[in-house]
Amino acid sequence: MPLDTTGKIFVITIELEKKLNLFPDFPGFMEARLYQDSDSAYFLEVLERRDSSVVRKRVPQTDEQVAELRKQVSTAISMRSPQTMYDQSGRAGLIVNSAILAGGYYGWAYPTVARMEDSKAPAVYFLITGAGIMIPYFMTANANISRATAMMDFYGGSRGIAHGIALYYALDPKEDSERAPLGWGIIGSLAGTLALNQWASTNWNDRRQSRGDWRRRRLWIGDECFLWQDMNFGMKTIKLKPGWWC
Q1: In this predicted model, what pLDDT tens digit does every residue of 99-145 receive, in sequence order?
Q2: Out of 49, 55, 131, 222, which could bridge 28 as a Cys pair, Cβ 3.0 to 4.6 Å?
């Protein structure tokens, strides 16, 4: 049974107890869980280490006591450890992925598209790369970022580059340009990042991991086929219009 009013906390671990200090009467506290038996009666189970043994203590709880306990847990979390309410298992990966896209593509593609002077381009490169790290770092401090969200965020951003460039040539531009395809790649990458990030956030989570894994595999297969079509189309376009990169 959940230990908080939002229904997200099902166990209070040692690490969480050090932040919340909800069980001072148990110096050897290990973890606490709330259970409900077949008679609809509640009991709080606390594991405590005493000397070299582990003691399991069950404390009966009334409905009023459970409600008060959940209120205390929620209040303590909101005041002392608000990050506990969020799934941030993929936050580090999302920040690293954002840094890779910013430094590996956006940082040099944007100065090229904007026709910046050589003296300004390095500064803009480092500015964009730094923004690619700091923006997601602060925006995800208090947000749900699952592993699926981080994975699909990078997948959409990286594959969106190829899709955007291919779309540029699919529109059959009248004038060849070195810079325009890079700009379309940036647009495609940002669109892919936002779209798949939102999709993963609303459709996948750890409780549906097995089904999510299968859906991810189907998406990868379909998207890789689309990516190869993009590359094939781009190669045909280049052959029809040699020198587009000059």
Answers
A1: 999 999 999 999 999 888 888 889 999 999 999 999 999 988 877 78
A2: 49
For tokens 């379909």, the residue is 222
Q: Which residues pair with 173 in a beta bridge?
A: none
Q: Nearest Cα to 94, choosing from 133, 142, 130? A: 133
53-61/42-50 β-pairing = antiparallel
> In whole angstroms, how far apart are CA 49 and each of 20, 25, 32, 52, 208?
19, 13, 12, 7, 34
Residue appearing with tokens 């450890």: 81
Handedness of CA 79, 85, 89, 94 (dihedral sign): negative
CA–CA gap between residue 22 and residue 85 (Å, rounded):
16
47, 13 in Cβ contact below 8 A?
Answer: no
Q: In what order do the strands lie in the sheet with 53-61?
A: 29-36, 42-50, 53-61
Residue 23 and residue 36 in contact, taking contact as beta carbons nearer than 8 Å: no
